[in-house]
Amino acid sequence: MKFKETLLATAILFSAGASVSAETLKWARAGDGLTLDPHAQNEGPTITLQRQIMEPLVARDMRGVLVPALATEWDPSDKDPNVWVFKLRQGVKFHDGADFDSEDVVFSLKRAMSDESNYREVLASVVDVRAPDKFTVEIITDGPNPIMPNNLTNMLIMDKDWATANDAIKVQDYEGGQSTYAAKNANGTGAYKLISREPDVKTVMERFDGYWGVEQFPMEVSRLEYIPIQNAATRIAALLSGEVDFIQDVPVQDIDRVVDADGLDVRRTSQNRVIFLGMNQGDTDLKNDNVDGKNPFADVRVRRAMNMSINRLAIQEVVMRGQSEPAGIILPPFVHGWVPELDVVQDPDIETAKALMAEAGYADGFSIKLDCPNDRYINDEAICQAMVGMLAQIGIKVNLDSKPKAQHFPLINNLESDFYMLGWGVPTYDSEYAFNFLVHSKGEAYGSWNNTRYSNPEIDAEIESLASEIRLDVRDASIRKIWDQVQEDVLYLPIHHQVLNWGMKSGVDTIVDPEDSPKIKYFSFK
Amino acid sequence: MLAYIIRRVFQSVIVLLVVGLVAFAMFRFVGDPIENMLGQERTQEDVERLRSKLGLDQPFVFQYWKFLKAAVQGDFGVSYRQGRPVAEILIERAPSTLELAAVSGTLAMLFGLGLGVYTAIKRNGWVSNLIMTTSLIGVSLPTFLIGILLIYVFSVELGWLPSYGRGETVTVGSWSTGFLTSSGLKALILPSITLGLYQMTLIMRLVRSEMMEVLRTDYVRFARARGLRESAVNFKHALVNTMVPVTTVIGLQLGSIIAFAIITETVFQWPGVGLLFINAVQFVDIPVMAAYLMLISVLFVGINLVVDLLYFIIDPRLRANGVGAH
């Protein structure tokens, strides 16, 4: 077939390529970045695209390890535990030739903290940002913050003068009437500079020869074309026909097809995202069940029984076609605080589960509505369908209600769902993030995604202590204590860690980023 | 005639207003845009603040009123998804949909009329039978399946045509066109076949049955008896008389080619307004959905008006009655 020959030819071409290459990489993914304004949308594909053009102070490499970017060193101040000091990289240029210095950092971080910014909450503990000199920045927090650098990996730095000149000082505002120059244009210090952008069509970037890291990174891609292709079949067809070189989301049913095609590879890694079910265990009665005056989920024996009735290996094999890692905890494996003994997968044990149900007074089971998204996670609806059969074994009749994500998440957040599916990734790579959102009682500053109505004052206090505990051993002990309690109480029913599958021409050489956020400067050609 | 037009325009405005009202009443069921607009780290306070800022906490009638007030001044708001003015986005996207619709509409009309006439005249030839049988595929296969089938044959297996996008485009003024480059023309082939196939078979079948009806009438027989040439009988007498119902259908189909390009555009990642609308629905981008729906209803209403006016030209009897009545 013709396309295979072309691929072979390209592969040979790649292998012959020298280190100073002029290679175009056509990179396709289901969704486009929504905007180029670095503080307007805290959303995966958006940040991934922006990261090629702009940089944070501290970044993560393709393995998720914290590495210096625009800052070279960072430490808590000797004088004041509430201050972090960042030494900036010198001699860095923006794409338009302007020099990078502390003024740009102060401007960008303050912009990220403004009311319209999507990153306000990530920097909620920051009181002020100041620049003692041209290449030093101090971040002042409302208490000691041991993991401040982890919160900065998505805070991309803009040029202050460029933003001022183009009326982009404020984060783009949905109310309208104001200039949205920064949504379609960008001036960063990143390895690639923006050449053109047509939203939902194509974004073209070119290698920035003035990049500070030209010597440190492969940077073999000289021209980068980012092309959103929504329809999965079309995306696969574009890869098979050689029209694109790299696609980020290979549907599980198409993996074999891509692997079998000559000149194409699929590479995988487990993703920084775990899929689980949440149960309303706080209310005295549930709206969506058939039990009057009582809440079956409030009884830990019921939750334990449910946990035992889930056959995670069967879900992995049948629903996910092997593309998942069964989970015992709602924390991705590379996140700080994860230990193997917490992630032990519960074996299905229907007899014990039935006994537990009987002990709790639900020998005849009960019925409950399960809310499930159908366009958010890999095979989300199919997982929920499997759950219906598994829970039926212990007498729980599950009525599945699956909806698009735009309707699913409001159900959770408006506390209208009693039993729901959720997936979670930890961008800071630290357990505290998961605790703040999923375990702490729901309130003003904490627990905004904890809709289990679980509330344990002792655990809440422990979680709050993590934010300012600078003795790392004490902090680690607290983290372990909280996870043990979460596991003990069966707060959530973990299902699996998602697995990422990247499809590419065999000539493209890269590892798979656990956050599903390729950094093209690390790509090379074989 | 003028009174007729004025009356129709007035009716059209009412239709538009009702469409808008229904649309705004429906938006609440599509989902909550706030979820998509704020990241997962947002607090309840952020949610409330943005909701009241956008006026989403008000009854839909108020939201609709606010939209209408701004819309009559040409302001359709800012897209929640892209953060850019909706009018700007629509202007950017319209050329690709219109070009696709024009090509597939033209193909559908030419082949539909031609093949319809042919199969009506050569009723029992084997070519006619073959055309009729294959046309069944066009009406019965769903659009997305035809699209994917074409992609697999012509892009993946044969490697002749692109599987996605518009190819290279040239911008003339604010209009980006794919007609001027070879990759742009190549990119048009598969989507326009996909989009036009159903319309073509529909027109063809309609022309054929209308034509067969007319061919049986007395005046055609008389025309034949007068010894007129076969082509004159078929085209001057028969075809023209089939055009009234055919025009209605072609007109309405032209509207639906634009409105229902959604599926074709999604399959081929064609950057038109249909794809924009799908994305807007998924994101609950209310300003874009509202503007799109209004635009499509303007289009349908406009096409209907044009079709009605065309009747006057095609059918002299209507002209006499129309003027007489008013």
Q: What report would you give on this structure?
A:
The complex is a heterodimer of chains A (526) and B (326). Chain A has 526 residues and is an alpha+beta fold. Helices cover 28% and strands 23% of the residues of chain A. Chain A is built from 15 helices and 19 strands. In chain A, a hairpin with a 6-residue loop joins strand 4 (71-76) and strand 5 (83-88). In chain A, helix 8 runs antiparallel to helix 10 (350-359) and helix 14 (457-466) packs antiparallel against helix 15 (472-488). The longest helix of chain A is centred in the C-terminal third of the chain and has 17 residues, at 472-488. Chain B has two domains: 1-81 and 284-326, no CATH class; 91-282, Orthogonal Bundle (MetI-like fold). A two-stranded antiparallel ribbon of chain B has the order 1-2. In chain B, strand 1 (170-172) and strand 2 (175-177) form a beta hairpin. The longest helix of chain B has 36 residues, at 86-121. The radius of gyration of chain B is 24 Å and the shape is globular. At the A-B interface, helix 1, helix 6 and helix 12 of A face helix 2, helix 3, helix 7 and helix 12 of B.
